[in-house]
Amino acid sequence: DSPLTNLLHGGAYFFKSFVPIIGEEDDEQFAEEYFLKSFNRSKKILDSSPNDGISYYIFYLTTVLLSKNYIENNELLDAAEIAQEYVDFAENHNLLSSAYPWPLAVDIGSVFRKSYQFDNNIKIKKIALNNSFKLKSPDDKIAALYHHVAHGYLLLGEYDSAKANYLKVLDFDDDDSYSNKIKLKLAKIKVYEKKYDEAILDLNMIFNTFDSNQDTMWVLHSLKELLIPLKELDKKDDIEININKMNLYINNYTLDTEKSMIIYWDMFKALQHINNDESDQYKNIAIKNMDKYLENFKHTKDKNNIKSNHKTVQEILQYQNTVIN
Fold first, then answer.
1. SS3 for the chain, per residue?
2. CA 185, 165, 190 angle in degrees (round to 5)?
3. Which residue, among 180, 182, 202, 181, has the nearest Cα to 191 in the 3D structure?
């Protein structure tokens, strides 16, 4: 009943759950139970023998498997709790500074991002970036880690740091498709900085590039980001033209409930007091998608976490409270 034995049992059920012919309904639950046993038992060994390499790697691997499973099931805070246990141990034994950068950023750091623990997210991503320089990682990997760090700062609202790190991405990877996505983020920062005229010029140029490449999701991103500066500069005709374009792309693309909520809510805000009938339609679609999105979270603590930290959900709930009161 060792950590390794439980890990192997969990792995067998995990892979079995993906095979239609032999997979059974309870496989995923059994996999989680064995992974938890492996996680707890490897951690118990490490508490008394912190230099046990095999137990450490089993502890890390079960951290990744459990947190990914929790994230997929929208149990965000459980995922973050598991990831935090690993980080606490690794930090206490000076292991983070020697961890492989990409798995650290993606497997651990991103758990904190998805659970809205942005301080922990940026902390892990910065350690991963430093480690990538120590290991002389390829430029494309360093660029990707700068991207992670930049996005972490953007989520924290630290725009100067976000901008500096996005520019570093371009120093290490100037691939056109990648650089256009970075330029979109830089234009988004200009919106936050209230440099509306500059942002509109940049976003129109970026839109044209994505449009010519038929990259629908990024076309929608660029059109969505245009709504705020157009609204702030009271360009009513341009707002309506922009939203008509968005509708054309939305009709040919399948959006999940979260993206639908965000896009339709931004369309509602842009058209409010310009075309109230149309804006009300978008508002109702956004609220309907928010309700569906929140239904994905079975635990009250996760629902409350989303309500407290998701920007669009917060705005919709505040709007609803204002209307009621």
1. CCHHHHHHHHHHHHHHCCCCCCCCCCHHHHHHHHHHHHHHHHHHHHHHCCCCHHHHHHHHHHHHHHHHHHHHCCCHHHHHHHHHHHHHHHHHCCCHHHCCHHHHHHHHHHHHHHCCCHHHHHHHHHHHHHHHHHCCCCHHHHHHHHHHHHHHHHHHCCHHHHHHHHHHHHHHCCCHHHHHHHHHHHHHHHHHCCCHHHHHHHHHHHHHHHHHCCCHHHHHHHHHHHHHHHHHCCCHHHHHHHHHHHHHHHCCCCCCHHHHHHHHHHHHHHHCCCCHHHHHHHHHHHHHHHHHHHHCCCCHHHHHHHHHHCHHHHHHHHHHHHHHC
2. 35
3. 202
Q: How far is CA 285 from CA 141, 247, 258, 288, in A?
A: 39, 13, 11, 5
- Residue 37: count of CB within 10 angstroms of its CB: 19
Instruction: Compute the distance between CA of residue 321 and CA of residue 325 in angstroms, rounded to an integer.
Output: 6
**Spans of the chain, pLDDT less than 70:** 325
Q: Is the pTM of this model over 0.85?
A: yes
Using CA atoms, how far apart are residues 270 and 263, in angstroms rounded to an integer? 11
Q: What is the pLDDT of residues 222-238, one digit of tens each?
A: 999 999 999 999 999 99
Sequence-separated (6 or more) residues with CB below 8 Å from residue 160:
none
pLDDT, tens digit, 9 for 90 and up, residues 244-289: 999 999 988 899 999 999 999 999 999 999 999 999 999 999 999 9
